[in-house]
Write a structure and sequence with these properties.
heterodimer; A: 115 residues; mainly beta; seven-stranded mixed sheet; four-stranded antiparallel sheet; 0% helix; B: 112 residues; six-stranded mixed sheet
């Protein structure tokens, strides 16, 4: 059963703590993306990776970090430097890293709440 | 960079009627325009997309039109059904290397 999985579905964090969100895909896709979604807002790109061991900042990368050590995995760390981390986080992947016209497939999302 | 405006933010239509959602974009080099449907608590799913070399694309009850001169594109849903209720997002792929820029979404409500 191919697809993108994100875990956990709900995550609670105390202010000042770092937290890592998981994203795994078994679609053999080269490119992976992290978006943030706030109520009444569109999706905003945090980071993306077109190929293993490479990634680029998106529009709102401050306070976040990523790694791409394996093709199927693209974890996102929300650091204590992120001033307003409470949001719905979406991971996506697409087949070809150098072809941004490829359809992006989204995971089910992780809702992060900072207490 | 690219800027995408989407209207309306909320749209309520009677079941069986048509729904139209409109988006404008700023980057004349944009060449790919997907539409996503997001149900509550789930990730967005692609429902239709259009590339800049065509003006219209249709898939059963869903169609998208693109006017490159005016820099706007629209989603048309005909014969709406209750399962069409969701939030719909338009997006545009600009000429830079930053990926898709999304609109803020339209909450479509189908009234029985």
């Amino acid at each position: 059963d191919g697809g993108i999985t994100q875990s956990p579905k709900y995550l609670f964090r105390k202010e000042g703590q770092n937290v890592t969100l998981s994203c795994e895909q078994n679609l053999n896709h080269d490119a992976m993306y992290w978006y943030r979604q706030d109520p009444g807002q569109g999706l905003r790109l945090i980071y993306y990776s077109q190929i293993v061991n490479d990634f680029q900042k998106g529009d709102i990368a401050e306070g976040y970090s990523v790694s791409r050590e394996k093709k199927e995995s693209f974890p996102l760390t929300v650091t204590s430097a992120q001033k307003n981390p409470t949001a719905f986080y979406l991971c996506a992947s697409s087949r070809e890293g150098d072809n941004l016209l490829d359809e992006q497939f989204f995971g089910p999302g992780t809702r992060l709440t900072v207490l | 960079g690219e800027n995408v405006e989407q209207h309306p933010s909320t749209l309520s239509v009677q079941e069986g009627d048509s729904a139209v959602i409109k988006c404008t974009y700023s980057d004349s080099a944009s060449n790919y325009f997907p539409w996503y449907k997001q149900e509550l608590g789930k990730g967005p799913q692609l429902i239709i997309d259009i590339r800049s070399n065509v003006g219209e694309k249709k898939d059963q009850r869903i169609a998208v039109t693109l006017n490159k001169t005016a820099k706007h594109f629209s989603l048309h849903i005909t014969e709406t059904q209750p399962e069409d209720s969701a939030v719909y997002f338009c997006a545009a792929l600009g000429g830079g290397a930053d990926g898709l820029t999304f609109g803020k979404g339209t909450h479509l409500i189908i009234q029985p």
